[in-house]
Amino acid sequence: MLALRQAAVVLRVPPGQWLGELHLPDSLPGSLYEGGEFSGTPFAGLVLRPALGLAPPSLEVAWTCVTLLFVAAVGLVAARGLPDPVPRRTALLAAPALVGLMMVSLPVREAAAPGQSAVLPVLPVLLVLLAVFRVPAERPAGFLVGLAAALQPALLLFAPLLWWTDRRPTARAAAATFAGATALAWAALPHDSWTYWVHHVAGTGLGGAPDALANQSVHGALLRIGLTGPAELLLYAVLAAAIARLGLRRAVRYARDGQLLLAVAVTGCVAVAVAPTGWRHQLLWVLLAVAGRVGTRAADRRVWPVAVVLAMTLPSSVLLPNLAALAPVRDNVLLLAALAAACAVPFLPRSSPYWRAPVPTAYGRPAAARWPRVPLLPFWRRVLSRPSLLLELLLIRVGYSMYSHIRAAAPASRSLAEEHGGQIHAAERALGLDIEHAVNHAVVGLPWLEGFFNFYYASFHFVVPLGILAALYWRRPGDYRWARASLGLATVIALLGFWLYPLAPPRLMPGLGFIDTVHGPQDLAHPQYGAMTAISNQYAAMPSLHFGWSLWCGIVVVVLAPKAWQKLLGALHPLITVCAIVATANHWVLDAVGGAAVVGAGFGLVYVLSGPRGLRLELPGPRTAGTGAGYDPSAVTGPTDGNRSTASPYVRIGQRRRTVPRR
């Protein structure tokens, strides 16, 4: 199905763009790098030359289909290379899952784009995997590794891995095959070989500038941060040697431990990182590193796979905000993932007692519900331990990015939004709620009050919810998940409102005389409304998440804060926010009602799915309370009254007062 879809895409590409990065006319020997787009080795060009005799449409379609078949083969071989004896059912699920992840990953998506020599990035991975897992003979396996290195020279690092894991005939065969293939390319294409190996050292600068974002190697990262000249080359050589030494030692250890797939993935990550140019389409090795197991707790096992999948499938702009301070990280996300897999992530050895039996996750039992007829979902269990900070930050950032994209993609018809605005205005007049115009003009007449509301509207929308989530994560992890889930569900419901009911806010309603105090005067005669449209969908006003998120903050603070002045501040925040959104003409009063409705629905859904906020935790016994296996003391919050007796063997979690059995 993917092959047919990609073939249809290819056929819509203009013929002049078919295999556009190859320049191999027979009459011009030595023209391989003439256009500067081809980044493969001379041996790769020599291998690809016979294929150019086919008709361009047939060649491009066949090229794409072969690429996708190679990706499927990589998934099948890698699934068979998992370290444990894999049951038949697990293997049937693992292979399609891995193939699907590779199909949507950035390397395959970039390599399979029409006009690219897509086979070159995928074929070396398949050759190495076949040599390690499917070819038992030493010399044929080394021949495959040598061919892979002839296509991507940095993969010659697999020869030391084979040598140090007692496969020395395979390592010698790999080195000999690489030398023979390179010599053959020198004999057939001397000019191109000189260009690749001498003029552009190992292809540096071919296919793109060395400091381009597509070059996810240590050399490219150093160039991007501004280092040049001999100092950069010396630092690059030192870092590459250190990474190669550390990464290969780790790979040898994992190979001797029986984790061959992880050893192959680590070596591939090292090869791409230390190469002068490690293009994004060569970083498929990082995705194979999900075979390693990380963490002693069951709840931590998903952190590394989720982080790898997010880094390999989503653009860096989705993972990190566009801030200058984060540019070095955002521009090198794939390189950092490869370096983490090669040098930093503490993968568990098979001899670890946590390899098969990690520390189980502690779950809380829902407290008695006030509405006993509300059915709870048994699979939605509340975890008591503090979640992984990395995973939480990634999911919050990705979730907000998806929210922003969906919000911006919601229908933004000007006529429909203004029609809905008229409906809201008429409904407010009928209900006696049309106070927006009077409040807006009254605030404009008081410059100090206008400045206060403008600052409050623009500054506290994100700061307060993130601050509350951070405080709950650190001090009240048991309540953090409850609060986070309710906020997320409320936001998802709000997206439906943006999509189904585009609404013009008062400031964009022509003829009503509202003053936009935050964004300045708007040209209502122009359908784009100036530059504001490029920032977000200006017609996503119903419901008001400005008020909805502030109401969520107020509810959480009032319910959880231990002191009266904190509860008062929490209650004031939504009150000031509703005044700000009305005074600045950014929302109707009924928008705030809609925001309150979605927040109430979010809390209600959490109640239906997992029960009330309070939880009950069964303690293992009076002598081991707080120290038993699977018990996380950070999940128990609030003061403890150890002098009150109770017959219940449970501790109430998430309440200000709870009891424990008397000793």
Quick structural overview:
With 663 residues, this protein is mostly helical. 57% of the residues lie in helices and 2% in strands.
Write the layout of secondary structure elements.
Elements: H1 2-11, H2 42-48, H3 56-80, H4 88-104, H5 106-111, H6 119-134, H7 138-151, H8 158-164, H9 168-188, H10 190-199, H11 218-224, H12 229-256, H13 260-274, H14 284-288, H15 303-313, H16 316-319, H17 327-330, H18 333-344, E1 363-366, E2 382-383, H19 389-409, H20 414-431, H21 436-444, H22 447-475, H23 477-500, H24 545-560, H25 564-583, H26 589-610, E3 615-618, E4 650-653
Antiparallel strand pairs: 1-2, 1-3, 3-4
Helix pairs in contact: 1-3, 3-4, 3-6, 6-7, 6-13, 7-9, 8-9, 9-10, 11-12, 12-13, 13-18, 19-23, 22-23, 22-24, 22-25, 23-24, 23-26, 24-25, 24-26
Tell me about this structure.
- The protein is an all-alpha fold and 663 residues long.
- It has 2 domains: 2-344, no CATH class; 384-520 and 540-610.
- The protein has helices spanning 2-11, 42-48, 56-80, 88-104, 106-111, 119-134, 138-151, 158-164, 168-188, 190-199, 218-224, 229-256, 260-274, 284-288, 303-313, 316-319, 327-330, 333-344, 389-409, 414-431, 436-444, 447-475, 477-500, 545-560, 564-583, 589-610; strands at 363-366, 382-383, 615-618, 650-653.
- A 4-stranded antiparallel β-sheet has the order 2-1-3-4, covered by helices on one side.
